[in-house]
From TrEMBL:
It catalyses: a 5'-end NAD(+)-phospho-ribonucleoside in mRNA + H2O = a 5'-end phospho-adenosine-phospho-ribonucleoside in mRNA + beta-nicotinamide D-ribonucleotide + 2 H(+). Belongs to the Nudix hydrolase family. NudC subfamily. This is Hydrolase. It comes from Hylemonella gracilis ATCC 19624. One of its GO terms (biological process) is NAD+ catabolic process. Its cofactor is Mg(2+); Zn(2+). The keyword Metal-binding applies. GO terms for molecular function: metal ion binding; NADH pyrophosphatase activity.
Amino acid sequence: MTPATPEFQFCPRCAAPLHDRVEGGFTRRFCRAEGCGFVWWDNPTPVVAAVVEHEGRLLLARNVAWPPGFFALVTGFLEKNELPHEAVQREVEEELSLRPLSAAFIGHYTFERMNQLIIAYHVPAEGTVRLNEELAEYKHLRFEQARYWPAATGYALRDWLRGKGFDPQEMAIPAK
């Protein structure tokens, strides 16, 4: 059982206070107001992630909100009525200005800290990298140089590299 996220204090339907109860093995926020019955399920948000292969190397990017030196996969939210393999190619185009050549499914991974479901793809791409406003910088790595981080997109990178015959090592994350 996991605790409910406290973002919702009042019912979005009737404005009554929300309360906790166990539903389906999880603590949920629900409305006790007569005739309302609202339950906040707190479902995860679907996010696509791209292991971008560019010029025969792995391309990792740093988001403007991240500390210097931290690079990861290109990610983005799945839009309404969008297929994941189309969304990941759109993200590569929007964030890197590269032309995606395809999108091959790697796997799906939970990212509990952000309550997201990561849907990861390998995206070979071509063109000249031009970063959009979300990204601060990028770097290319030879596949055998890549290390993975112990989180959802890191596990996607690890699984893709292993599928290519590499044995990536987990990078050490400094204690906070």
